[in-house]
């Protein structure tokens, strides 16, 4: 099981290196797609950390820190706005 966790963590970390290779999808500015991809990757890592720790409290990964709360709020709101933008 430990071997699987280390490979999965390496896979999650390697997802950050695929940002320059994202397709343009016909947009003028590719930065929006890159931010959307990064918000999905960061959300996956956050979910993985919650599951790995086995707790769902706010102190699991330091969510009592105001800077981290601000960062995760930004990521979640950006993900929601991009989803709405892609739908409409």
Give an overview of the whole structure:
There is one protein chain. Helix 2 packs across helix 3. The protein has helices at 2-14, 31-53, 66-87. The protein is mainly α and 88 residues long. It contains three helices and no strands.
Task: Describe, in short, the structure shown.
The protein has 88 residues and is mainly α. The protein contains 3 helices and no strands. Helix 2 crosses helix 3.
Secondary-structure blueprint of this entry?
Blueprint: H1 2-14, H2 31-53, H3 66-87
Relevant terms:
88 residues; mainly alpha; 3 helices
Total helices: the number is: 3
Elements, N to C (H/E): HHH
By DSSP, the count of extended strands is 0
End-to-end gap: 42 Å
pLDDT under 50 segments (min length 5)?
Answer: none
Major β-sheet, in short?
A: none
